[in-house]
Amino acid sequence: MKILVVGGIGYIGSHMLKRFKETNYDIEILDNLSSGQKENTLNYKLHVCDLSDKETVYKILSEQNYDLVMHFAASINVEESYNNPKKYQQNNVINTINLLDCMKNLKINKFIFSSSAAVYGEPEHLPVTELHPFNPVNPYGDTKAEVEKILKSYEESCGLKYVSLRYFNACGAHLDGTIGEMHDPETHLIPLVLQVASGRKKHISVFGDDYPTPDGTCVRDYVHVMDIVEAHILAMENLTNTHKSQVFNIGNKKGFSVNQIIQMAKEITKVDIPIKIQGRRKGDPAELIADNKKIMNLLNWNPKYSDLQTIVKSAWNWEKTLKIK
Ligand code: UDP
After folding, report:
1. What is the pTM (predicted TM-score) of this model?
2. Mean pLDDT value across residues 73-90
């Protein structure tokens, strides 16, 4: 089976490539090099191309016989999605439509999409099941919900079969210490907390301590990136065997507050981490916890690395290598 990994050198894509090295799948990458590191290609063929350039995307896809496309490329910064909604519509929605259109014309009919828990917004019930209605509370979440709806239309119009994987809070780094999370600017809690521990940042801002949660700070479901990529392997196998589209949450069914994350980081790094309580961040739901029964039952997915210790330890090892660089 020949697979195109779109956005393959970013945070999750690069962990996916490393996992593919343990398989016999024939892999190629398409990436615009806007983030991530070029050295993460692991010698797989890299097509440098932006999805807005539909002609080139079509040419690349038509010259290869891909059986399946995995789509990791997206803009993911919620604050930026408020300030620059056009960028989010272009990168996350229009570019995905470009890719799907090329696939449609070339009769490539298997697609794995990186969706997000952001499609749920402020959940009406916890843990959130896949049947929870879409109610995104920020423009980034809007774009993920839009693409999920578009996927349904493509299924009806051309028989595309897809799996949407709704990531909760992707985090952690590869246990071999060679790759990890690196965004510019970094906005995610765990890498920022660890940047304080390593001395790269002076303090961590806690965005709101007046939420209706046990300690007043936001609660999230943190899931290790290596467990996320394993879900992709299982989703892909299921799609190939059943030819049935699916939607799965990828989460741990456990919530941790911002304070609990900081506490765990203190224990692991053995460094004091100064905090500053600040106002709430726009577009942040109070609490997000995944119901993960569906993926566990149907795909036999069983997270191995998503306990908070392993997540923070692996991210800390990675942060120490970044500090040296
Ligand atoms: N957060 C925080 N300080 C930071 C970054 C994040 O308090 O410097 C909070 C944020 O408000 C949210 C949680 O940590 O409640 C996780 O945020 P992150 O950006 O990592 O992921 P998100 O849940 O937005 O996808």
Report:
1. 0.97
2. 96
